[in-house]
Amino acid sequence: MALRSIRLQQFRCFESVDLELDPQVTLIEGANGSGKTSLLEGIFLLGRGRSFRSARLDYAVRHGQSGLVTSGLIDQGVTTVPIQIAHSSGETVARLRGERIGSLAELSMAFPVQVIEPGVHKLIEEGPVRRRRFLDWGTFHVEPGFLRDWQRFHRALRQRNAALRARANVAELEPWTEELAVAGERVDEARVRYLSESRPQLVAACAELLGREIALTYARGWSGDSLREALSAAQATDAQRRVTSVGPHRADLQIAIAQSAAKDVVSRGQQKLLAAGLLLGQIEFHISRHGRQPTVLLDDPAAELDGAAVHRFTRRVVHLGTQLVLTSLAAALPAGIGSGRVFHVEQGRVRQML
After folding, report:
1. How many CB atoms sit inside 10 A of residue 288's CB?
2. Residues 28-41: what's their mean pLDDT?
3. E-only strand ranges, 179-229
4. CA 15 to chain centre
5. Sign (positive or negative) of CA dihedral 311, 317, 320, 326
6. Is 210 exposed, middle or buried (0-12, 13-18, 19+ CB in 10 A)?
7. Distances (CA, A) of 2 to 52, 270, 280, 288
8. SS3 call for 32
9. C-alpha angle 20-23-24 in degrees, rounded to nearest 5
C-alpha cells in the first residue's frame, strides 16, 4: 500500500499542486520556508484528518481563500482508492471512494501514515497528550473494538463533564459515571495489551537509535483496580473542580532511562532519536501484525543529529521497506536510502527533478 499521487488546492502557500509519488522513496528539496513541510502536512492530512503542525486546519488555508482541498490516490495493488479531505469555515469533510465518511478513523485504516518531524522530541518532552495519541494510534490498528470503546468513553466523558459543570447531583451523574467506567476499562485493557505486545520492538528500536536501554510503563490514569471505585472516590473532588479527574484520559506512557524520566537525562537531539525510535518501532510492529506498510514522512531527518546518529536512523528507516517521503535542504538522498523521485519546491511551485 502506498500513496500514488496527491493534489493540494489552496493549501498553505500552494494555489494548486500535483505530485506523482514514488512507491518507495520521494525526496522534496528546497530552501527553508519554500513549502516542503506543507507537502508532508498535506499527505499526513489524508491519513489522519488533521495537521501535525497546528491544532486548527483553518490555519492551513491559503491566505485570502475560504477553504482547502487535499486529495490523493492510494495504490492497493490491482486497484486505486481515491481519498479526499475538504476543509472550509471550520468544517472538515472526508471522502473515501467518493463517499462521505462519518469517522476520520476510516482514513487511518485506508491510508496509515506516520510522520517524524523536527518537533518529534515533544513526544518525550511535553505532557501526556501526545503519548496517549501515540498509544491510541497503535492500539487502534491492532484492537478491532478499540475505536468503538474509545468513542463510547469520550462521549460519556463529555456528558459527565457537562453534568459536573451544571452542578448535577450524584443521581444525575450516575448513568454517565457507569458508562464511563465500563468503556474506560475497555480502553485501558486494550492499551495494556498493545503495549505488552509491542514493547519489545519499541524498546529495540530506541536502543539502536539512542544507544541506551529504556523502560516503558503505562500509567492508567487512576489508582486501584476498578475505575468505577476510583470515580466514586473522586466524586467530591470532581464536583468541586467540575471535571472528571480520573480515567484513561489521564493516562500516560512513562519513558525512563536508568530509573529516571527520559526527558530529564537526555539532550534535545537524543529526545528526537528516542521519539523517532518509538515511532519506527511502532511502525515495525504494525507491519509485523498486518503486513501493511504505512507511508512514513520524514521532515528534514538530519536536523539536530550528528553523522553517526543520522546513519543509525537511516539504517532503521531503510529496514522498514515502506514508502518514504522526505524533505531536505539538499537535492541528494541520505546515504543508504537509495534512489527515487526528486522534487524541487520554490515559492509555492513544485518541479520534478528526477
Report:
1. 11
2. 93
3. 215-219
4. 26
5. negative
6. buried
7. 20, 30, 17, 17
8. coil
9. 125
- Give the H/E segment covering residue 80: strand 80-88
Q: Is the pLDDT of residue 334 over 90?
A: no
Q: Is the pLDDT score of 192 beyond 70?
A: yes
Residue for cell digits 495489551? Answer: 193
**254: Cβ contacts below 8 Å, ≥ 6 apart:** 216, 217, 218, 219, 261
**Stated pTM of the model:** 0.90
Give the three cell numbers for residue 169.
447531583
Give the pLDDT score at 148. Answer: 94
The alpha carbon torsion through 317, 319, 321, 323 (nearest 10 deg) reads 0
Which residue do the cell numbers 522530541 mark? Answer: 121
Q: How far apart are CA 139 and CA 294, in angstroms?
A: 15
Do 138 and 285 contact (CB within 8 A), yes or no? yes
Reply yes or no on whether the pLDDT at 119 is more than 70.
yes
- Taking only Cα atoms into account, the Rg of the chain, rounded to an integer number of angstroms, comes to 21
Burial 225-234 (b: 16+ CB within 10 A, else e): eebbebbeeb
